[in-house]
Design goal:
Layout (H helix, E strand, L loop, with lengths): L1 E3 L4 E3 L20 H11 L4 H16 L17 H10 L8 H16 L5 H12 L5 H13 L4 H13 L5 H17 L3 H16 L11 H14 L3 H14 L9 H6 L4 H4 L2 H10 L3
Antiparallel strand pairs: 1-2
């Protein structure tokens, strides 16, 4: 799960569901996302566009970014891909953070369509990914979507460019190349390579080659690396990075908190291991 860093979007914080509070036994209340999805599923005609917009904004407000986040759209009826690709190309004028809204629409298309997309969708994505004046995160998301839909040429070119940057003689430029490469790999769900890219940045930080705080919060980068190792099934490596993240994650600006650690989908396999409970007891007691 991605968290907003100083320079690029990485893993982010989920919003926990509220609990009903009355004299009866408490039970989870429907989250804003679940409510918006239910209304979208029930909407008809022209009301569907407004309902889809509310659903997308509800997802954005959680700041969560993970594979499968928008899978619920598959049960919300047909024709949503037309509106999503239209918004990805040109968002509504009144949405907050237009670029993030556009990226969210592309991720929604990926979850909605799976491995195949109609030509009208891939054509627009290709136009966005090849536009030299397009915002970089939008370009990356469009290229990653095309790779999922069967055309990896643009994402392969991005990987090649970033790989070349990791050979730079300038330590800061080399670190930024590894950092951006981790984002590229995460976007195409290549979690093992994403983790290795984060680990390369962290090695440079630990041996004093560069200052990590010029790129992002060190706690966030350790945590992101743990998430990728967890997704890749490398649990020992994940716990090593998670422990380091927790050790320096007490700073509120780090973004690490109990809610995130107890709900993030990326580290779900870690929560099933007894080591997770021990780390929580040590670093996040109570």
């Amino acid at each position: 799960m991605r968290v907003i860093s100083l320079s690029v979007l990485l893993f982010a914080l989920p919003t926990a569901s509220a609990l009903a509070q009355d004299s009866r036994p408490s039970k989870p209340a429907a989250s804003p996302v679940a409510e918006a999805l239910a209304k979208l599923s029930a909407a008809e005609g022209s009301a569907r566009e407004a309902a889809l917009r509310r659903y997308m904004l509800a997802q954005m407000q959680t700041t969560a970014l993970y594979s499968g986040q928008y899978a619920g759209l598959r049960k919300a009826g047909e024709g949503l891909d037309d509106q999503l690709i239209a918004w990805a190309y040109e968002p509504p004028l009144d949405v907050p953070n237009e670029d993030l809204f556009r990226q969210s629409c592309v991720r929604a298309l990926r979850d909605l369509l799976g491995s195949e997309a109609p030509e009208k969708v891939t054509a627009k994505l290709r136009e966005m990914a090849e536009d030299d004046y397009e915002e970089q995160s939008v370009k990356l998301n469009a290229a990653a979507a095309l790779a999922q839909f069967g055309d990896s040429s643009l994402i392969d070119k991005l990987v090649k460019t970033m790989r070349a940057g990791t050979e730079s003689e300038n330590p800061q430029q080399r670190a930024m190349a590894w950092f951006r490469l981790s984002d590229v790999y995460y976007s195409i769900q290549d979690y093992s390579n994403a983790a290795d890219a984060f680990a390369a940045v962290l090695k440079m930080h630990e041996d004093g080659t560069m200052r990590l705080d010029r790129i992002s919060s060190p706690a966030i980068v350790y945590y992101n690396c743990a998430c990728c190792y967890s997704r890749a099934g490398k649990l020992d490596e994940a716990f090593g990075m998670l422990e380091k993240a927790m050790q320096i994650g007490g700073d509120p600006s780090s973004g690490l908190n109990r809610r995130l650690l107890e709900s993030d989908q990326d580290i779900a396999p870690l929560r099933e291991d007894e080591r997770f409970a021990k780390l929580m007891a040590e670093h996040y007691p109570g």
